């Protein structure tokens, strides 16, 4: 059974490794995959985009554990979400908003009080003491409904959608990767069969769409459909974020012919 881990714990501290140790003590046969532990601390939206962008590439039955949890130790629920092919375990803080928006027929459960022994649960490290053992036990075949109860009061979260007019689409940047590429919420299908006349974001203006980075000289800006199927603003071998001062939430306007 594959278990993936997505956290904001970083790689220099022992937290991610502690989760792996707990999982392997319970299920030594588990295949653990680190998605990343470099999510910006407490950034639920960033973690939500990351899990949405890759969860379908894993084998059916994979358990995806997302621990970006600013409310750790509070009364927030711990969710187990079952879709047709995957299981997600995450805090109830909107981090699974793209899953709720994109999947159909999912079932949402809330961890029952007492399902995980509470003697050694730290109020600051539920990743190790609750999420990890929960994932491991489910990976061994323990029924979800023996650990959790159905839950309808979960926080669905808001997936921001572009505004589409006759000749333009107004969206925003939703993610910036380590290369400084700015991913927008404008999906390829929203462009239809029309030509793009202009893409604008902050100080950046690009007058055509490209299909690959090498369509423009090194150091030149470009817009293209990236691997997530969304319009991206980039610079060939440089950072669009740094060059143009772009950030998540910034307005992006695509003008169509």
Tell me what the structure shows.
With 257 residues, the protein is of the alpha+beta class. The chain has 2 domains: 2-150, S-adenosyl-l-methionine hydroxide adenosyltransferase, N-terminal (Rossmann fold, 3-Layer(aba) Sandwich), CATH 3.40.50; 163-256, Elongation Factor Tu (Ef-tu), domain 3 (Beta Barrel). The protein has helices at residues 15-26, 44-54, 97-102, 126-139, 144-147, 188-191, 240-244; strands at residues 2-7, 31-36, 63-67, 78-82, 87-91, 107-111, 148-150, 163-164, 168-176, 182-187, 196-201, 204-206, 209-210, 221-225, 230-235, 251-256. Helix 1 runs parallel beside helix 4 (126-139). The chain starts with a strand and ends with a strand.
Give descriptors for this structure:
single chain, 257 residues, alpha+beta, Rossmann fold, 2 domains, nine-stranded mixed sheet, elongated
Draw up the topology in text.
Elements: E1 2-7, H1 15-26, E2 31-36, H2 44-54, E3 63-67, E4 78-82, E5 87-91, H3 97-102, E6 107-111, H4 126-139, H5 144-147, E7 148-150, E8 163-164, E9 168-176, E10 182-187, H6 188-191, E11 196-201, E12 204-206, E13 209-210, E14 221-225, E15 230-235, H7 240-244, E16 251-256
Helix pairs in contact: 1-4
